[in-house]
Amino acid sequence: MSPSSTARVMILARQTLLRQGLRRALSSAGFQVVADVADGPAGVRYAANLRPDVILLDPGGVAGPEPSLLGALLSAAPRSRVIALTDDLGAAPGRYQVCLPKTADLRALATLIRAVHRGDFSPAGPPAPLPPTCTAPALGEGDRALLTLLAGGLSNRQIAAQLHVSEKTVRNQLTRTFGRLRVHNRTQAAVYALRAGLVYP
After folding, report:
1. Range with lowest mean pLDDT among 15-24, 35-44, 87-96, 142-151
2. How far apart are CA 67 and CA 55, in angstroms?
3. Tens digit of each residue's pLDDT (9 = 90 or more) over 150-170
4. Among the three residues 118, 152, 184, which one is the final residue of a domain in this structure?
5. Which of 36, 60, 64 is nearest to 50 (CA)?
6. What residues make up the domain containing 176?
7. Phi and psi for 185 in degrees, rounded to 5?
8. Cβ atoms within 10 Å, residue 164
9. Which residues form the HTH luxR-type domain (predicted)?
10. 108: left (phi > 0), else alpha (psi -120 to 50), else beta?
11. Residue 187: which CATH number?
């Protein structure tokens, strides 16, 4: 897949309103939604035929056993990346390639889709994976505000303007926050924060 191309997304969720809402929101954000599917077997067929870059999966809203469905999706479309929309983050890291809480907003979802599409997130997980309990370091309000803007794709200058501080302050705070999260760059920090629910909805 080309990192500069538009991500091709397939939505797999039983609820019609959820599928329709995601389709409209992602299309307006510039993604190409190639299909929205209600059940697992049909989703596997669509994945095999369409080979989407990213599959958005609502695990609790799709018929069929989760592990076998995930395996079937990855067998049908090995190059696709599956993002699970789930609040069961305690189990998610060992079960899915990437997970995002359902409380996240469109900006957070779009950031994660772009990161996965660019290849910044491998199937094995980020360089600093969350522990099995999905606990994360305690961060202050300033750190969470910074991570929220970072996950939204803002530059240091834009973050500084939003927080009414200097760019140097933003750089210093990012360095400290990276250390607390044990990550090495902006993308890793954004993905970690999204997975751990550290960003504001």
Report:
1. 87-96
2. 15
3. 877 778 888 888 888 899 999
4. 118
5. 36
6. 141-196
7. -155, 180
8. 7
9. 132-197
10. alpha
11. 1.10.10.10
